[in-house]
Amino acid sequence: METMADRQSTDWIKLDLHIHTLDDPKDRLDYSAHQLLERARALGFGALAITLHHKVFDRAEVFADAAEMGILLIQAAEVRLEGADVVLLNVRPAEVENLHTFDDLRALRAGRGNEIFAFAPHPFFVLGSSIGERLVREIDCFDGIEICHFHKGWFDLNRRARKIAAEFGKPLIATSDAHRLQAFGEHYSSIPRPDQLDVASVLRALREGPLRLTTPAASWRDLFQVFYFVFIKHPLRKRFGGGHSIHPEEAGLVSDG
Question: Quick one: pLDDT at residue 127?
Fold first, then answer.
């Protein structure tokens, strides 16, 4: 017999709209898009966006695999505009190549309207290219604001993001910003299951709500792994090699799920 919890779980779908894989031209990662899909299917995700740095992930065979798994894969990218990172959903490769400034983004939004969705990732975090207080000045460029996964207790740099989201009526989007496969799956947003799961319905749900955010505090182990990856493992990969030299599936390796 179906319980209320079962119905609630069935009526909502999980989304992670900020993820990186070994296809990324900037970061040297060690898991493939197919491995990500296998983990997403096991964890019950309904929609994903692989957000490579300044490049749209558009490998047709991965989109086909996602569709067979019942997962909507949205074309997306994480771009750097005037030193600040922006995540764009449902953006095209040629459009990303021509994006350099916030005025470029304004022109793109004027042309595409609600067909694209822009949000500010990790806006008030020191590391990376966070937009910081400039978010207020450029707020017309954004449809949403990310709640970053990296927080614990008093250490929560999302407080300012929550305040600005409330002030300007922007939805908060929880993501994993995964750079390690095991980091994917705990931090995500959920939307009511639409009648038809497609890009337009997901973007509409992000704008109109309701949204559920799942973003538990990081454990001490999580914090250690993040610091180890950012300050030791990833710099060594970039200096000495390792990471995205070849897709495991192209090498004939079996995904570990």
Answer: 65
Domain holding 108, by residue range, is: 4-240
Q: Tokens 């300007």, residue? A: 168
If one counts the domains in the chain, the total is 1
Average pLDDT over residues 148-177: 93
Q: Which amino acid is at 6?
A: D
Give the largest CA-CA distance in the chain: 56
Burial class for 37, CB neighbours closer than 10 Å (0-12, 13-18, 19+): buried
Question: Residue length, the chain?
Answer: 257
Rounded to whole angstroms, the Cα distance separating 131 from 30 reads 27
Q: Determine phi and psi for 119, rounding to 5 degrees.
A: -135, 155
What local confidence, expressed as pLDDT, does residue 122 receive?
Answer: 94
Higher pLDDT, 182 or 9: 182
